[in-house]
Write a structure and sequence with these properties.
The chain is of the alpha/beta class. It has a single domain, classed as Rossmann fold (3-Layer(aba) Sandwich), CATH 3.40.50. The chain has helices spanning 8-19, 38-46, 75-80, 105-132; strands spanning 29-30, 57-58, 69-73, 88-92. A two-stranded parallel sheet has the order 1-2.
Length: 134
């Protein structure tokens, strides 16, 4: 979940689907509303991560659904995210790459991609080990 669903949450959703090989059902939601930033799509495609089917959803559309994990991406999202009682709530403080000047935006998207890829790989590994030992 992020505040605008234009960049970080879309990249994270695509990466989780890609890394976890469809072993997770992924929902991407936002506090506000907005279209997917073209640089988010471009960055995913640049690294060979499928971007098809990415669709921002507003928080109200998923508020009653049960989740195992809810991950907020960015401090504004954390401040405004409701509590999901049965979910493990995680917060990854990321700067929105779409908010930087256009001359450094491609690098900002690359940086967010790399950070999210590392964190998602770790999350998937830890969760798989947790399931194995349950």
């Amino acid at each position: 979940m992020c505040s605008g669903s234009s960049a970080c949450s879309q990249i994270a959703a695509a990466l989780l689907r890609h890394v976890a090989d469809d072993h997770y059902e992924v929902t991407c939601a936002c506090i506000g509303s907005g279209a997917i930033h073209p640089n988010a799509i471009w960055t995913l495609e640049k690294y060979g991560v499928p971007a098809a089917g990415l669709q921002p959803k507003v928080l109200a559309a998923v508020a009653g659904e049960p989740f195992d994990y809810v991950i907020t991406l960015g401090d504004r999202a954390l401040e405004r995210c409701p509590i999901f009682p049965r979910a493990d709530m995680l917060h990854w403080s990321l700067a929105d790459p779409s908010m930087v000047s256009s001359d450094v935006q491609a690098r900002a998207f690359d940086d967010v991609f790399r950070v999210l890829l590392n964190r998602i790989r770790l999350l998937v590994t830890v969760n798989e080990r947790r399931i194995e030992h349950a």
